[in-house]
Amino acid sequence: MKAKKSLVILDSSIQFDEFKKFSMENTTFIAADYETHKKLADSNTKHELLDNYLQKKERIELYDFVLSKYTWYENLTRKSDFEFNNINILSLMSPLEFHEFVLTVLIKLSSIKNVISSKNPNEIFVSEKFLKYVELVQDKNKIHTFDSNLNNEKGFLTDKIELRFNILSKPYTFYISKKNYSSLKKIYENFFCKINNLWLDKKTLKEIILLVEFNTSTYEEMIRILSKSKKQVVVLNKRRSAIWNKKSIRILKSNNVKILDPDKFFDLRTNPEFLLERKRLNENLHELWKSNELFSIFSIGQFSFWPLIQDRLQKIYDYRLDDYLKFIFQSRNFLTQLNIKKIICLGESGETENVLLQSIENDVDSILLQHSFLRYNPKLGSIQWRYDDQKMIGLKSKKLLVWGNNDLDYFSEQSLIKKEDIIISGSPRYDNFSKKKTSNSKNILIALSPISDRSGLGDVNVIIKYNEFLVEMINVLKGFDDSKIIVKLHPGENPHNSILLDHLKDIPDITIYQTKNSKDLIIDCDLLINVSPELYDSSTIMLEGLILGKPTIHVILDDEFSEIIPLEYPIIQVNKMSDLKDKTEKIFNNDDFRKTLLQKILRELNKYLSYQNNSSSRILELFENYT
């Protein structure tokens, strides 16, 4: 009698000892995530990676497919059922949030389909978490399930947000529900805005420049300069508080900047209409989730993946409906009652920005201000454009303010944005970004860019490669006499940060930060190294290193790196450990090499950053001349 072939797909939701129940003969163990792979590897259990059953070409095709689904709600036969004030409530989920969620689901589905096709098992053992995936592609009679822990999901796609801080140079993370966070934020702001007279008077007649979701501490100089205009500068922050520290309170108070409280524009007269609309939308949403139409809209090939995303999407919209609708009412009211002339955003995919940009009339100037540094090597333009926000979601604002000529050339060549709508302004966040002399020590700052789900290419193999390279790199750098290693994790919310932190904690004699101000760390370093997992990605910390006159190396782990000619200056690009060691050796021990490199940094910086130390004044000039 022929032995049964068993396929066991393990993931982090399963109790790890479950796999020990199986005979190793005729059984294939598949690790669906890094945590499971690590446990299996540590126990010397032979296994394969689920990620190995999906080729790069397939991942790219899935990425393109997800882009085509951003406006899925436009295909509904009754799409008007979800509209209010000319805004479709279904459009308010961040497209980038939708993108990463759906792309991750499709990658799992396609990988599982491929592994089942390859192994052709007689029976499949899978967690409850992956059961729906397997049921879509396999006869249910062959499927057996493990008990799973499905209540440990945190972060961006749930009702929790991540809060990070350092204690004695060690980063810590905890989670709080979004509703609790909003309540605490409201109490905090009510107290400090009242005693500091920071709330905007809703009856003001002044013309207003509205800053949306700004870190007020980072943009101190721009706030100071814009406050010199005849217009009232106002901040609207629904996510991070505009007065999150003492410095931000001082900045706003000393420059007579006010904070817009949306709740003040939601009164008793508004509430009855709100309740009626909420009831209508709630009923329509509940009908929508039962509609067969969604099986067709969310299908790929012969499979509908709607059963895989239905629960999550339904929870997101049900959970956020009140906030979405209430802010539409609030924004309608304050846009009508206040004399807002200009709205400045740092991004367009967030829910606050999304509602505002769909609500404003033509007489309000909307400006998107570039907020990150990516485009330092023109050879990477087409690769970076593929994953650029403006490629993925377009430009909703009337004008795009960019930092320098490199960015202007990039958007002019790659995008369909009219050239007259792209204006060089420099970066106001780097006005007064003071420079310090380089010390004679050998402090090395390693800034780690995490793997994201944006491209769909960052799989478990990339995590393994990243970890191995990181350990080897730190050991190599420790070999330089008197060197001190400081590691800076990316401040954003990302699951890979937890993996990196767990990996780094076993490496002795290094200091790790996640939330500490990057400028302070750069000032104290003598070499800045940024590690990126993918070719299209880079970190703004590299520009900060150039501004502060620090030799900067960009380590790119992507295999595609071999297809480009690496830069030698002002940012040194490397992919191999031998090249990193060689460049570090020259920077520390070859005075001529270091001197020449620093001279080239000063010269080339102008391509990346125009109006240095004068960007805020440039923006004010543009505002006064642009109507």
Molecular structure report:
The protein has 627 residues and is α/β, with parallel strands linked by helices. The protein is 42% helix and 18% strand. Helix 6 packs parallel to helix 21 and helix 8 runs antiparallel to helix 10.
Oligomeric status: single chain
Task: Note poorly predicted spans.
Answer: none
Content-based structural category: alpha/beta
Quote the average pLDDT.
Answer: 92
Question: What fraction of residues sit in β-strands?
Answer: 15-25%
Q: How would the blueprint of this fold be written?
A:
Layout: E1 6-10, E2 27-31, H1 34-42, E3 48-49, H2 56-67, E4 83-84, E5 87-88, H3 95-119, E6 123-127, H4 128-137, E7 143-146, E8 160-167, E9 170-177, H5 178-195, E10 207-212, H6 220-226, E11 232-236, H7 246-254, E12 258-259, H8 270-289, H9 293-297, E13 299-300, E14 303-304, H10 306-337, E15 339-345, H11 351-359, E16 365-369, H12 381-386, H13 389-393, E17 399-402, H14 405-414, E18 422-424, E19 442-448, H15 460-478, E20 483-489, H16 495-504, E21 510-513, H17 518-523, E22 527-532, H18 541-547, E23 552-556, E24 571-574, H19 577-589, H20 591-608, H21 615-625
Keywords:
627 residues; alpha/beta; 7-stranded parallel β-sheet; 6-stranded parallel β-sheet; 24 strands; globular
Compact summary:
Helices cover 42% and strands 18% of the residues.
